[in-house]
Amino acid sequence: MSIARHLLRLAAAIVAVAALCGAAARADVLPVTVSLPGPGSTVSLPLELAISLGYDRAEGIAIRPRYILGGGTPLRDLQSGLANFTIHGMPAAMLNRLQEEHYVTLMPIDDQPQYVLMVRRGLKGRIKSPRDLAGYTIGIHANSLTNRTTSHQLTEQLLQSSGVGRDKVRYVAEGTEWASVSSAFRSGAVDAGMTDEPFATRLAAEGLAYPIFKTTARAEQRRLAGEGFLRVALHGLRDHIEADPAAAERMVRVLQKVLRWIATHTPEQIVDQLALGGEMRKVMLTVLRGNPRQYSRDGRFSTAQLRETEIFFHASNPENAAAQRLTIDSMVFDRWAGRKP
């Protein structure tokens, strides 16, 4: 079965489970919509696991994933009421905070950021490191360049630190779905791109691209300011949360519980629980085995990680005066997640 077809089946199954929960739930069960990338991504995996394991029902909520294409969609979904919460990159959320004063972060989901700078196969031998990318076209994992995603901020900071200024490359949006990303590399529409998982692993497996930088490689982390930044987190609007704190408290409990489950189970058990098969199973196993520090083990805020994230954000937005003034503590809502050093 193709990965695209498997993802469609996975999305349909998750939505069906969520709908069934809503139909069979007690009258006091809270319906909760979460806006996030997916399905079948490393970003959506914890939420999909939580639904599969029934953790939302155990906490008296019925979670419905709303899969989105990134960019400014998380903020619009929260403001319009299409979603109660959103899950996406923390540096991107910090830019959202500049537009919406009520935008807050409820808990971390990731531990170590997982990004891979991939280069299309036709350039092998010519491009060996980020400094070689001057004059080339760089794909951004987004559907628009209007809103600077986490991967966009990371790409610009990395290239700048490698001596490649913003004016030395051409940025294009390569999309956020496998079909658009793989097509961009296959056709030569992009020469390189900061790629999310499991896309990076799949691009390499299919011979479409090769890696020249990984955020998980110790030797390469020194290129970045704030290399240990928080990538994926749970976000919401403070005024909505204060008006209905029960939903937020239960969401945090659900996600912390599933993060503990992930930390105590093998990659094989994780993909089995999600009923992944075929190529999708193989790719996700490779990603999970290679990145044991992908997810937080307890879902508590780390003071050290928050400091790293603030350093990363300021370094990635040097010409944005409002971004320079923003402190990460101003948007951390840790009432239920808690903190650690």
TrEMBL record:
<dbReference type="GO" id="GO:0042597">
    <property type="term" value="C:periplasmic space"/>
</dbReference>
<comment type="similarity">
    <text>Belongs to the bacterial solute-binding protein SsuA/TauA family.</text>
</comment>
<feature type="domain" description="SsuA/THI5-like">
    <location>
        <begin position="44"/>
        <end position="215"/>
    </location>
</feature>
<protein>
    <submittedName>
        <fullName>ABC-type nitrate/sulfonate/bicarbonate transport system substrate-binding protein</fullName>
    </submittedName>
</protein>
<dbReference type="GO" id="GO:0042918">
    <property type="term" value="P:alkanesulfonate transmembrane transport"/>
</dbReference>
<keyword id="KW-0732">Signal</keyword>
<feature type="signal peptide">
    <location>
        <begin position="1"/>
        <end position="27"/>
    </location>
</feature>
<dbReference type="Pfam" id="PF09084">
    <property type="entry name" value="NMT1"/>
</dbReference>
<dbReference type="InterPro" id="IPR015168">
    <property type="entry name" value="SsuA/THI5"/>
</dbReference>
